[in-house]
């Protein structure tokens, strides 16, 4: 079996669904079920005997150790993380606890478990750590894309905590020999994306007739990766990646935030027009930029393409069309998510228009 941590979150749940859909090994799915963890994401697996869900914290060493041993785990895929930059600015302590302390505990429990395995099982075991492009800092418009050899220059509490976790993973390889792999991905989008992030927030607000908030001038550039492509890439790295290596996973789709919002508006104009016949673009509102906002991220994914043969299947246009269609077809999921603490957070975060 494999252990997936953070498997009720956006990327983690897509990975679990993708993995089991492919008929691969049973999954032990561990998630703390914080605000971003949502069991509705896993509804399709409610009767699947190959999916075992447990609510728990990766910082709980007793729980992690028991799961590894009880289920004879042959691979750990670590998605568990606090991941929203804005939240890390307002409350960094949770990011330190989960992303650093939690990853440390997961590594230590895995190391102790791995040391008890037979030689053959040791050779087959993998610890795959899922990280982010944000650990590399920010790029100027003319700079080449990030490679795996770029210096770490994190600029937010979130990215700093993820950078620290990446360093821990590297250390557990070089000090203890734990067979680790690390992936650094660009911005994901697609189904089950918690609607505080740009794309699902814009879709939700547009349909509700609310403003579409864009930080600053909207010229921040991101490389966008459809979540199913990311899941396929992780499977590829887990299967064929070289122990100790890091692999960048990118969508090869650099877009400004304003371009992304315009694309969403165009798709909604075509698929679910406003009653008054006007474009959703009229709802765009520019809000005060967040502190230390990185201007550009871009990933050079040539290593994973050359070594492992992975390439994204979706273009930005095809992925966005699928994403908007999913949210239109699953409005109840969004309604169930966008309540209570989430609404309080959005009101707090986007209160100051400019």
Write up what this structure looks like.
The model has no long low-confidence stretch (mean pLDDT 94). The longest helix is centred in the first third of the chain and has 23 residues, at 93-115. The strands form 3 sheets. The protein has a 7-stranded parallel beta sheet, with helices on both faces. A 3-stranded mixed beta sheet has the order 7-9-11. The chain is globular and about 65 Å long. The chain has 13 helices and 12 strands. The protein has 354 residues and is of the alpha/beta class. The protein has a domain at 2-186 and 226-251 and 294-315: 3-Layer(aba) Sandwich (Rossmann fold), CATH 3.40.50.720. Helix 1 (10-21) packs across helix 8. The relative contact order is 0.13.
Structural topology:
Elements: E1 2-5, H1 10-21, E2 27-31, E3 51-55, H2 61-70, E4 75-78, H3 85-90, H4 93-115, H5 119-124, E5 126-132, H6 157-176, E6 180-185, E7 187-189, H7 198-207, E8 212-215, E9 221-226, H8 227-240, E10 246-249, E11 254-256, H9 257-271, E12 284-287, H10 302-308, H11 316-329, H12 331-337, H13 341-349
């Amino acid at each position: 079996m494999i252990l997936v941590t953070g498997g009720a979150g956006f990327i983690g749940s897509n990975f679990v669904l993708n993995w089991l859909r492919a008929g691969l090994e049973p999954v032990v799915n561990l998630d703390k079920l914080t605000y971003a963890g949502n069991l509705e994401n896993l509804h399709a697996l409610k009767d699947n005997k190959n999916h075992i869900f447990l609510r728990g914290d990766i910082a709980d060493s007793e729980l992690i150790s028991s799961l590894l041993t009880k289920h004879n785990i042959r691979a750990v895929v670590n998605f568990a993380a606090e991941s929203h930059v804005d939240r890390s600015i307002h409350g960094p302590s949770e990011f330190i606890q989960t992303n650093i302390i939690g990853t440390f505990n997961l590594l230590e429990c895995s190391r102790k478990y791995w040391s008890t395995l037979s030689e053959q099982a040791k050779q087959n075991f993998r610890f795959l750590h899922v990280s982010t492009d944000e650990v590399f800092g920010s790029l100027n418009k003319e700079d080449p894309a990030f490679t795996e050899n770029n210096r770490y220059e994190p600029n937010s509490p979130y990215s700093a905590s993820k950078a620290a976790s990446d360093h821990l993973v590297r250390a557990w390889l070089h000090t203890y020999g734990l067979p680790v792999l690390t992936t650094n991905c660009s911005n994901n989008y697609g189904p089950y994306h918690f609607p505080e992030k740009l794309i699902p927030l814009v879709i939700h607000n547009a349909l509700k007739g609310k403003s579409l908030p864009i930080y600053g001038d909207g010229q921040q550039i991101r490389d966008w990766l459809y979540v199913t492509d990311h899941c396929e890439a992780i499977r590829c790295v887990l299967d064929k990646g070289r122990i100790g290596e890091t692999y960048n996973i990118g969508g090869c789709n650099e877009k400004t935030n304003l371009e992304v919002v315009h694309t969403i508006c165009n798709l909604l104009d075509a698929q679910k027009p406003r009653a008054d016949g006007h474009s959703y673009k009229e709802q765009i509102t520019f809000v005060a930029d967040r502190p230390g906002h990185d201007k550009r991220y871009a990933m050079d994914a040539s290593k994973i393409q050359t070594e492992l043969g992975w390439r994204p299947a979706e273009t930005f246009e095809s992925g966005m069309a699928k994403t908007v269609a999913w949210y239109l077809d699953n409005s109840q999921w969004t309604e169930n998510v966008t309540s209570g603490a989430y609404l309080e957070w959005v009101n707090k975060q986007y209160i100051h228009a400019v």
